[in-house]
Amino acid sequence: MSGNDISIERIAYAATVIDERFRNTPQYTDELLSAALGRPTLVKVETTNPLRSFKGRGAEFLLHELSADVRTVVCASSGNFGQGIAYAGRRRGVPVHVFSTRTANPVKLARLRSLGAAITQVDGDGTTAKQAAHEHVRQHPGAVLVEDGREPAIAEGAGTIAIELLRTDAPDTVVLPVGDGSLIAGVASWIKHAAPSTRIVGVGVTGAPALADSLRAGRVVTGGPVDTIAEGIAIRVPVRQSVDRLRDLVDDMVLVEDADLLAAMRLIADTLGILVEPAGAAGIAAIAKHDLGEHPATVLTGANPRPGLPHTVLGSDHLPASASRRARRTDAARRPAERAPAGEPS
Predict the structure, then answer these.
(1) pTM reported for the whole predicted model
(2) 300-334 confidence digits (pLDDT tens)
(3) CA 219 – CA 211 distance, rounded (Å)
């Protein structure tokens, strides 16, 4: 029996109701990037909106669908998903409470606060944050817990990306970073409907392979401690509903190293002039490392890197002398390099 509960009709509807700031994002084939990758590669840029990530699409559609009786929306997030929920909640006058870890990206936490979200930071990893969010909802009637990867509406909102991607010639392969799985579930659902010959390839990271292991096993496989700079795809305990969907939708799952992500970030900066976060570069990293079609497409999913990481990626040759000195001091203060805590939700 199929585990895919994503509705094609609702993806089409989502494209008409989510905030226009998240729709019709740039997509193009850049000659320099394509030359470096050895094949024409269509890139969709999801970093030019108020959140600097694609997460606003799914969050917008989810809150559009929630009952007007909801008093507070609660979620666990390492940053980008929480920003999406906070933005959508503020737009509708709904308070948002985000649970995160004490080691979460301070850039993302600052942006969460700027959107008016209440934040509770907990010890432990992303799974602990989810548990704390569940307990909070249990104790507060009227609060509703939303979980990235579980709710179909989040994937359906993210699936609007696929409608836009296919307005150009259909790529032979779509390569997407996979965290909790909403992005690839929504995009793959639409593409399997509208361009069934296009392959769908997910990208994970070797330091957090639990979702890839789960898809191979056909069930949820809990991973060990994660070890990666890519906090947006650093999943230790995959969401069961997401695993069920992706078993029907994903043709292949590949892994990349942190070094591949850093190289892809540098390549994107050099060719497109965009500084993405590590998870946001995963699609390009996979296309550079693996043989993934002759005309692939991917999405730059987020641009909220941790402090100090831009200097690590770009180096002093991209900075004025004064900025270079400041970056070196910041970088030295943060060594050893910050890693994503185990099981961070995005």
Answers:
(1) 0.90
(2) 999 999 999 988 888 745 444 333 333 333 343 33
(3) 9
